[in-house]
Amino acid sequence: SYNEVASLLLSGAEGAVKHLFARDGAEKISLGSLFLTLFTYLPLAGGMPGLPVPMGAFVPSMLTGGLIGRIVGEAISGLDIGHAGIYSMVGSAAMLGGFTHMTLAIVVLLVEASQDLSLVSPLILAVIV
User: Fold this and answer.
1) Is pLDDT of 2 > 80?
2) Backbone phi and psi for residue 2, each to the nearest 5 degrees, phi listed first
3) Is 77 exposed, middle or buried (0-12, 13-18, 19+ CB in 10 A)?
4) What does the alpha-carbon distance between residue 61 and residue 127 come to, in Å, rounded to a whole number?
5) How many CB atoms lie within 10 A of CB 65?
6) Which 8-state DSSP code applies to residue 8?
7) Whole-number Å distance between alpha carbons of 38 and 92
């Protein structure tokens, strides 16, 4: 059987970010799985910078913001405002903007990754605010 938490935690941070950003119709992730993944991953990612291992905080902050954005997107999915993957991308941009203080570079990076120019406005708004 398919386990959403295992697919988010065991596919690596890059794979989990791709899974969160997915916007095809069949990609609905339950809120319980997203909260469990967030509460499992957040303390682990927060404790890693103190260890003597080569690891950056860029992708973990991208995943954390993506999880929070996807939770918001799935919570308001009944309103049909936008796809939950877009909220995940906006949350990731907001977290990266707060972490790196590089506004335009974050927007360009995420627009390039999504190949969708219509996301420039919500991403720049999330990064600036």
Assistant:
1) no
2) -95, 130
3) middle
4) 14
5) 25
6) H
7) 13
Q: What are phi and psi of 82, to 5 degrees?
A: -170, 170
pLDDT digits (tens, 9 = 90+) for 30-60: 888 899 989 988 888 888 777 887 777 788 8
Q: Which tokens sit at 69?
A: 């954005």
Please tell me the distance from the alpha carbon of residue 96 to that of residue 6, in angstroms, as a whole number.
Answer: 24
Half-sphere exposure of 113 (CA within 13 A, CB side): 22
AA identity, residue 99: F
Distance CA 128, CA 98 (A): 9
Which regions of the chain does DSSP assign to beta strands (E)? none
As given in the structure block, the two tokens for residue 53 are 């291992």
The pTM (predicted TM-score) of the whole model is: 0.87
